[in-house]
Amino acid sequence: MIIASQIPVLSQGFDWQYSARLPFDAPHYYIGISARYGLNWTTGNISFLENKLRCPDFYDATGNGFNIGIATQYWLDDSRYALHANLYYSNHSLNASIIDRVPLTSTLTAEYETNLNLSFSQLNLLIGGKYRIPSTHLNIGADIGIAYNINRTFDVTETILGPIEVPPFQTNPPSYSRDVINGELNQMHALYINPNINISYDIPLGIGTYIEPMLSLNIPLYSIMNGDNVHNYSIQFAINILRGIK
User: Which residues in the chain land under pLDDT 70?
Assistant: First the structure.
């Protein structure tokens, strides 16, 4: 009588095998694509100048961001720890508004709303690791993000809210809204470093391939802008699709 026993070969927590008698020798190295969408919010002030004159600061900006790039992971021998390095192109937006009341006469106070729309693009490198909780495909991890700013644009508009007695701006033609064309913001740091805390779940898509949905919290270490105390937080939802390479 022949007695056959099977010892499953588990890698990254997945019971990958071609058949009951032909297990899959899972690789350690994986590469794929990654996409992220995030919500941004800031604390601190964004200073603004018009014609070199200081205007009221912007506070509590909010916005969003989108990243797309290449993801890599390397699983260590025990299949519970993995290292990763991801390279992204990202585009982010921040929007803020302020209400300013300016006395025009002793009996007339004008109310103005000023809106800031700031966008910036970055090249991002993420380096970190994760730990797979035993008997699950749930991971907890952290990484360090290094962002290089490659572009920044902004526009500022001002609108007269009232009262009706307030005259329009002296534009051509006169209008109750105008673009601020001589505005200035402080420059952003060319290089920005921040840590992230991640939680993710690995889902097999077939032998040697898996998808990793991830929730990531960005924790700023310092201001994103020179001369201003602007800390940019974000929470991001990511999708990594990875395939093993032998």
Answer: 1-25
